[in-house]
Design goal:
3 copies of one chain form a homotrimer. Chain A has about 475 residues and is of the alpha/beta class. In chain A, about 50% of the residues lie in helices and about 10% in strands. The first copy, chain A, has 2 domains: about 100 residues, uronate isomerase, domain 2, chain A, CATH 1.10.2020; about 325 residues, TIM Barrel, CATH 3.20.20.140. The first copy, chain A, has a 4-stranded parallel β-sheet with strand order 6-7-10-11, covered by helices on one side. The radius of gyration of chain A is 23 Å and the shape is globular. The mean pLDDT of chain A is about 95. Chains A, B, C: Its EC number is 5.3.1.12. Chains A, B, C: It is an enzyme of class 5 (isomerase).
């Protein structure tokens, strides 16, 4: 018996509600996966090489998994991270298996069990006892052609997937995938943080490189903006329909051209004042919004994460090791300059994400329920979970409705978790809709229509994927 | 079959809990409506003229409806708002009907369906197909005497309704209603924002006018305070039992008389310093609280809305167009000066409202669960909904109990939604109480008593409506 | 019939879920009480004298009870508090009984009813009618040996209880209890606020006293730190396994030794600058964490309460009268200096508490789900309730799991409520776990294991009580 995946998982306890939810879920369970925001490695799609081993696939690169193990005293080195770390993947797998109980009650467990079961055919919960057997079973499958990235893409029913790519990236893997004759639709996303955020490593060199790539003079404000335009055009030509902006805060600004040019000059010449970096990021959000009005790229804003919270962990093990911790955020005043400038323009689409759930009902739903340019991204990161999705829908829907949201993002670099994450989302939304039906807030027929929108319709529409290059 | 109103709507899914909730709801469904805070137009009650057409009644003035349509790209002009706007109400109605699906899952839909069904006898959900027929049905009824404001007042079972009126208002419509021989109880509320907030339009002229109306010297601090006293007395004589204060923040101050007079002088003479406007509003809350101690008017404080967020919308379409967006608020330190001054005085009653739900359990319930002067207003604005009411009761009750709350406010300018809103509130409270009963946190007999309090008892008591002029 | 305690109280309404919850609860209902953080009076355990009367036991010292009565207009004096207060305990009891309905829907009622029923054998709900009879019944029992503190300790099944004690305390009552031959395990907790917080009353004199007690020179920074080390050693010798720190904010600092010594010198010499008191508290949290690394004492941090909010209440009736009101808190940046210094050290254990529930999912779960030194304390104070516990588990578990929490604290000075509080916690956790089981997020077998951890296992482990002096 497969103990990993109960067919009614995540559906409401009340029998009447569960029956409705089950039926709603069944209507969308097999819908294609539209994945407009994520972090799969473009190289997978370009090279289509086999994955090396179970630990590399499931443990080391997954910051959800790593941080939980670290939080209970397992050293990074035991997980294969850092200097002098353990290198035998089977040993890493055994540590993971011995501590698999730590994931009880977490979305990681749902995702992992789903992948173990549906992708690798395992039916027992991972433990020290079966660690070696499960390692062998996965490792063996990884060698077969059916477990290469493109085969998994097809098997998972992915219609389109977006990667997230530096503004300086040459998108060679995207080109390789397109030129290979493979039919899978993989599109890049323009992520210009490294050439927008003066606090990023090598910012000056990055701007020089931006100039080289575009033949624009990134020593001047207008040349710099033109360089962005050129790169955006390149990304669009490669299939991009969206940009993505990871900023510490949602602050925006709308300086005069003279002020903006002076600010740029101060930063470019290393004479930045105290607040200049933040002000520049703020100004650039408005500039990016203006470019989106021009070129139609959907703009995504992810804010509120304090990256690499622990200095020692950052120094020793690098970024993305599970130590990015949210801070309080407020959007209302922060977004006003941008929204005053272009917020009522129907050509702009700006999708907002938050790690501070207090903003759902207080700010985000009221903003998205008023501005035609705004949409709300799905629950993000720590909140991409059953309870997180429930809180999002409960707090957002009454003020913003369903159509000011954009369906689901899997947002992951863990390939095998993609179907699991969309499945959790479809189940959680079905549960929410069933609750509305059973309390007569929605007709059953309407619930089916909305379930379809939430599973893939709103993602396609919200990210303008119909209009994108196919 | 009427698809608009299921008799069990909003009641819990679990059959046992639903049976208890249904019975609790039945016990209060027909209780009189006590509406101590709202925005109906006094002119309706004074003149008792017919409403002009369905679009004017249901769409154009309802910022909940307008903002949702605007958020999905319908221009204000298509809704009859702004220069050169569409003027045919039937056309406006058709746009609304064609987009009625946008309100799925929102309280607006519950309110509208309730009004369409119970007030106008419609039984189908509004759509493009039936838009004209429903328009005609409503338009025809609006011409009959039974659909004039006072007839609706009686039909809705309204025991008393409070309007919200500028401190400078002559209350002529209230006088007209009283003198007409009509028995309906309509009372004004003293809302002095335009003569308390130095940032309001024409503040100086407003103070001059305040002086004229009261024969007080509003050029001096004491004369200005006396003018408030005089206007409050006038409002009381016209039936008011309450004041209402809409401030950006809940900040209060308790300056010495010398400091306060100097502050007033700076503001009156146009020599205000940076923080003076906010400080003056803060000081005036304490002054108003002191006057409430003297004259017994219940004080209401509504804070935390950033009004007219979009500059262009404000300039082109004016205020109250759906672009008031909440900001984070904190009461604990902000209210201390006022509460140190008069917070323990049993004669003061101060009712607090919030748009920042994080304050429910963190600040408001602890404050109201300690200070004898404080009561909590019901969920406000974006939170006046099923989920909003549930969150309020779940977060407030354990710390503040039921009796530190004041029942329900419909808070609306949409006359036909008044019964709908009270109905939602009674159903939501019945659902909450049933949950407490079924989990044995409350005896069933107690739940009936509390349901009665929440439906109208606490509103009457909380707003001192028994003591008011009848 | 006993109307006070339904056997299924707090268990979910859905029959399937309730059956699972009932069974989970049954498996832990009789587990020993491990109480690692609370405020029972050490004198009770040392002297083991009878409690004087029902009002002294249940009303006057219970700030939950007092504040609710005060909030509804009952003066402190009627509760026996303040100059010229009523002194007849029976009269105080009658006021309480007449207003017992105020506690409907609150945890106080659950706790009181549980104590009345299980400790004193009462079966009717308290009211004016039965006030005298219940008073007599309780008063009579209080005279018997079975109702002395140590007898209750045994009857309640307490395995270990921690008190909270000033760093300057001589722990004489703890010594008396140990020397009496009684087997009950009562341990002190090192609470150094009065010698760490420069804003506390008599801070200078407290430091002098600290010097006398330890023969350290508390006129110097190093002497002062040594004095802490000495007192911590004394507390450990007396059985302590933990320290507790009540700070207004969670701010920490990590100054150089020179800076810290200079800061100490400014404060000690009365030349503190504006921010020095806060900075000193911040620095001392890091120093305490370093000492915890050395001596293994578990560190608890309680922040975010604005103490004695009303000036008049504080002046007239003193501290702990129900007027401590929470303020917004943020941990992410505040804790960084401490965590950069020692946060990755496995020898440190720092347990975090909050009154600002917005930090659960935004900051605390991400922090505890990453740092090996961090654990989350249970819902605190206003949130130590059914809904509070539910919110905590729903917001924390998905990111931090179960094992980064430390079970339950009763945190009370109300002796008879201890079993009630642990019972509420066990029921609430059983309800939460049953919900996970019925939605197939957890296997039933796992739920039993976790129920055991949450009832007492994690408290014992989290507070290192196995390692403590027994």
């Amino acid at each position: 018996m497969n103990v990993l995946l109960h067919p009614d998982r995540l559906l409401p306890a009340d029998p009447t509600t569960r029956a409705i939810a089950r039926s709603l879920y069944a209507s969308v369970a097999d819908r294609p996966i539209v994945s407009p925001h994520g972090h799969t490695d473009p190289c997978w799609w370009g090279e289509n090489a086999s994955f090396s081993n179970p630990a590399d696939l499931f443990i080391t690169p997954d910051h959800y998994v790593v941080r939980m193990l670290v939080s209970q005293g397992i050293p990074y080195e035991a997980l294969g991270i850092g200097e002098g770390a353990r290198s035998d993947p089977r040993e890493i797998w055994r540590s993971f298996a011995a501590n698999y109980h730590l994931f009880q009650g977490t979305p990681s467990r749902l995702w992992l069990d789903h992948a173990f079961s549906t992708v690798f055919g395992l039916i027992e919960r991972l433990s020290s006892e079966n660690a070696d057997a499960q390692y062998d079973a996965i490792a063996e499958k990884l060698q077969s052609a059916q477990y290469r990235p493109r085969a998994l893409f097809d098997r998972f029913g992915i219609e389109v997937i977006a990667t997230t790519d530096s503004a300086l990236d040459d998108l060679r893997w995207h080109a390789m995938a397109r030129e290979s004759g493979w039919k899978g639709r993989v599109v890049p996303t323009y992520r210009p943080d490294s050439v927008v955020d003066p606090d990023s490593d090598n910012f000056g060199a990055n701007l020089d490189r931006l100039g080289e790539l575009t033949a624009c003079d990134t020593g001047t404000w207008q040349g710099y903006l033109d360089a962005h335009r050129a790169r955006r055009a390149f990304f669009r030509a490669m299939g991009a329909t969206a940009t993505d902006h990871g900023h510490p805060t949602p602050r925006t600004a709308n300086l005069s051209e003279v002020e903006a040019a002076a600010l740029f000059a101060r930063i470019r010449s290393g004479k930045a004042r105290d607040d200049d970096a933040e002000l520049f990021r703020a100004q650039m959000l408005t500039e990016m919004a203006r470019m989106s009005v021009e070129d139609g790229l959907v703009m995504q804003l992810h804010t509120g994460s304090f990256r690499s919270h622990n200095a020692g962990v950052h120094a020793r093990y690098g970024r993305d090791r599970g130590f990015d911790i949210p801070v309080p955020v407020s959007f209302t005043l922060a977004l006003k300059p941008l929204l005053d400038a272009v917020g009522m323009d129907p050509r702009l689409r700006l999708i907002l994400f938050t790690l501070d759930e207090t903003t759902y009902s207080r700010e985000l739903a009221p903003l998205a329920g008023a501005y035609p340019s705004l949409r709300l991204g799905p629950p993000w990161w720590f909140h991409d979970s059953f309870e997180g999705i429930r809180r999002f829908r409960e707090r957002v829907t009454e003020t913003a409705g369903f159509r000011n949201t954009v369906g689901f993002n899997d947002d992951t670099r863990a390939l095998c978790s993609i179907p699991a994450r969309h499945d959790v989302s479809r189940r959680a939304d079905s549960a929410f809709l069933a609750e509305l039906v059973v309390t007569h807030r929605l007709d059953e027929g309407e619930a089916y229509e909305i379930a379809l929108l939430l599973s893939d319709g709103l993602a396609r529409e919200g990210y303008r994927l119909e209009q994108g290059d196919t």
